[in-house]
Write a structure and sequence with these properties.
single chain; about 350 residues; alpha/beta; 5-stranded mixed β-sheet; 10 strands; globular; binds adenosine-5'-triphosphate; binds fe (iii) ion
Length: about 350
């Protein structure tokens, strides 16, 4: 089967064409994968502006679809299924992708799979690794941070989650406070490589609660207070970046990663109480690109799998992959034309509606 994946839930417009067999359990082949990132455009606003993001998707999506399908060496008529993110995300951006998918469905009478963006982030691991169910999924992205028990591709139980900011937000907001630009995850990751994790102390959120919930608002506030007391550390221009900046990045990142590591232990314990011992761990979402998180978790756990960095941040390949894995519960044309998008994540098997 040929699967077209469309992702427009936030600020990245991405399209991919995959070839795979939904029954084989084998990794599909990524025939083409294109991404248009709005990062540079949105950097000047210091974050995502939903209205601007929607307009950018409208501009970029049609040409991107054209290019990707050509690069894959197929035509629109070859596509057997369209996978499109329908939740969670920003409503305007989601609707641009969904309407493109519906147009294709209308033209070619193809079916659609309405993709849960978060599950797709985790399941992207199968693009490059063989991981068996059940597994413990740690999703760390720009808008969410969750520990899950993944029993099957569409059977995901949330074991714990952040009670305030997401891990990616902790990076982005921290970077903004320091004057490092947006999005700051990769910038902090790079600067921290030459920094001292022990130079400054930042708090690990919910350190004493023996559950797998997370909190990142405290570490962010601690950084704000610290910078108010030490305004010289603020980076006004790239020339201001020095050893102090690197040490702050390393110490701040250490607090975030320590929380993720600590709470993973409780997530594993909780899965054990549910009768699932020694499960593999899968880490996905944009923050799964982080080199320090990768190092720390790989040192502690043998059976941990990270989504390939190019499939960690938002991309069409993970959306097509998820649609392919759930091929049997696709929505058939013409019911496809009444699919809706929504902004929030509610963990119900709503995408099973056919
Ligand atoms: P969600 O998936 O929750 O809707 P999103 O799609 O915006 O949110 P992703 O695209 O999965 O989020 O990830 C983006 C986030 O990943 C940003 O917060 C970014 O700073 C962070 N990120 C990217 N690379 C790194 C890195 N190397 N280290 C830490 N964080 C990173
Ligand atoms: Fe995402």
């Amino acid at each position: 089967k040929y699967i077209l994946g469309i992702e427009t839930s936030c600020d990245d417009t991405s399209v991919a064409v995959l070839k795979g067999d939904p029954t084989s359990g084998q990794a599909p082949e990524v025939l083409a994968f294109e991404l248009f990132s709005q990062e540079q455009m949105l950097a000047q606003w210091g974050g995502v502006v939903p209205e601007i993001a929607s307009r950018n998707h409208l501009d970029k999506l049609a040409p991107l679809l054209d290019v990707t399908i050509k690069k894959a060496g197929v035509t629109l008529s070859d596509i057997d299924l369209v996978g499109v993110t329908t939740f969670p995300g920003l409503l305007g951006p989601l609707l641009t992708g969904l309407n493109a998918a519906k147009t294709i469905s209308l033209l070619k009478k193809v079916d659609i799979f309405a993709v849960n963006h978060l599950f797709a982030h985790l399941e992207a691991v199968h693009l490059t690794h063989e991981v068996t169910y059940p597994y413990i999924g740690l999703l760390v992205s720009g808008g969410h941070s969750l520990y899950t028990l993944v029993r099957a591709s569409d059977d995901v139980e949330v074991l714990g989650s952040t009670i305030d900011d997401a891990a990616g937000e902790a990076y982005d907001k921290g970077g903004k406070l320091m004057g490092l630009g947006y999005p700051a995850g990769r910038i902090i990751d790079d600067l921290a490589k030459e920094g001292d994790i022990n130079r400054f102390e930042f708090p690990v959120g919910l350190k004493t609660s023996k559950d797998c919930n997370l909190s990142f608002s405290g570490v962010k506030t601690a950084l704000r207070t610290f910078l108010e007391k030490n305004p010289d550390y603020y980076v006004k221009s790239p020339e201001d970046i020095n050893q102090d900046t690197k040490d702050i990045c390393a110490s701040y990142q250490h607090a975030i990663v320590s929380a993720l590591k600590l709470k993973l232990r409780y997530a594993i314990e909780k899965a054990g109480e549910l009768g699932h011992k020694n499960l593999p761990v899968v880490v996905g979402g944009g923050v799964a690109c982080n080199s320090y998180l990768r190092k720390v978790l790989k040192e502690k756990y043998k059976n941990v799998f990270f989504v390939e960095p190019k499939y960690c941040t938002d991309n069409g390949a993970m959306i097509a992959n998820y649609a392919l894995r759930n091929y049997e519960s696709r929505i058939k044309y013409p019911a496809t034309l009444s699919i809706d998008a929504r902004s929030r994540f509610i963990n119900k098997k709503e995408h099973r509606k056919t």
